[in-house]
Amino acid sequence: DAKTTQPPSMDCAEGRAANLPCNHSTISGNEYVYWYRQIHSQGPQYIIHGLKNNETNEMASLIITEDRKSSTLILPHATLRDTAVYYCIVRVEGFKTIFGAGTRLFVKA
Amino acid sequence: NAGVTQTPKFRVLKTGQSMTLLCAQDMNHEYMYWYRQDPGMGLRLIHYSVGEGTTAKGEVPDGYNVSRLKKQNFLLGLESAAPSQTSVYFCASHPPRDTIYFGEGSWLTVV
Predict the structure, then answer these.
(1) What angle do CA B25, B28, B34 make, to 5 degrees?
(2) CA dist., res. A54 & res. A61, Å (int)
(3) Do A45 and B56 touch (CB under 8 A)?
(4) Which one, out of A102, B22, B38, B64, has a CA that is 20 to 30 A from the CA of A60?
(5) Per-residue b/e over B78-94, b at no fewer than 16 CB within 10 Å?
(6) Residues in chain B closer than 8 A to A46 (CB atoms)
């Protein structure tokens, strides 16, 4: 499984876009990029995933670089409820999932 | 549809005691996982299963055993609990080509 590197923490002003980077320079061709978040001590919640193309859903957008060595999760209008730990994971679809330490996002009023 | 259910949610054990955590999913998922999460840390994979009757070791398997006798259940056992196993335990499941669904967590304290 490819490893990921994320900054340990980030701040964002409420209402602004939160851009969370992830480095996965050893990703292989059949590995997907997944993003999850964990609020307080709840179970992680799925946000979005992608292989090559950029993806968007009702929660966020995922931008994957052309060489697939890094990606950015974008929360377009962050709210206080988006304060959480965000995990970037790469894995072969259907295979075991290894979590890293994630990025702790603080959204401030 | 209950999703992924973990029991118990809270438990206090004495060092050396044994216990079993039960994870049940009603979504007919093939893949099931047990993670642990220590304060301020990310999730670490203990054991996982890719189908009924199969189990495999994750990142931190020592001190734990698992069984998947039925597709819907994944049991995590601690044969002789140690204070280092004090943690929050999360179960998760997913079908072969889909996202992961997590349980609400089980808080275990070993004194």
Answers:
(1) 45
(2) 7
(3) no
(4) B38
(5) beebeeebbbbbbbbbb
(6) 99-101
